[in-house]
Amino acid sequence: MLNEHELIHIGRIQRTHGTGGELQCRMLNTLWEDNDATFIILNVDGIYVPFRVTDWRTKGSDDVLLTMHDVSTEQRAARFTGCEAYMLRSDLPEEIADQPDIAALNGYTITDNRRGEIGRITAIDTSTMNTLVQLDNGVLIPLHEDFITGIDAQTHVIRVDLPEGLL
């Protein structure tokens, strides 16, 4: 049985595409496109279920169209609409697999290199290309890789260097 520590969040199934069981997945990152994974894992009713991907292609800059083994009709594919999509960490290069999943950062404390502790993450919005985190004090900040100077998974602290005027 798969657990969340073995997975990394890559997207969400948006809708069916066509009548042959193809699914459109909105990707949060390029991990799927950059690696040779064979399986996509969907969270179906709270259970992580692996599906063999038999074919896939990009659609635009954020979407991937997936064909999964034994999902060959629009009706069967429709069941997976809205499911969160994951990859196995073991399918990723070690330097990527060791990084925490963005969703796993909920509860981490944000500390700015100049300002000190800013707050604790209470919500993460990945619905757009710019990931935003909401802190326990109500502040929203972008969680962009250019701002992050370090992540300590042991102490649950994200060190950032935010530009002036952002807070």
Model description:
It contains 3 helices and 12 strands; from the N terminus they run ββαβββαβαββββββ. The protein is mainly beta and 167 residues long. It folds into 2 domains: 4-97, Elongation Factor Tu (Ef-tu), domain 3 (Beta Barrel), CATH 2.40.30; 102-160, SH3 type barrels, CATH 2.30.30. The strands form 2 sheets. A 6-stranded antiparallel beta barrel has the order 1-2-5-4-3-6. A 6-stranded mixed β-sheet has the order 10-9-8-7-12-11, with no helix packed on it.
Q: Which key phrases capture this entry?
A:
mainly beta; single chain; elongated; 167 residues; 6-stranded mixed beta sheet; Elongation Factor Tu (Ef-tu), domain 3; SH3 type barrels; 8% helix; 6-stranded antiparallel barrel
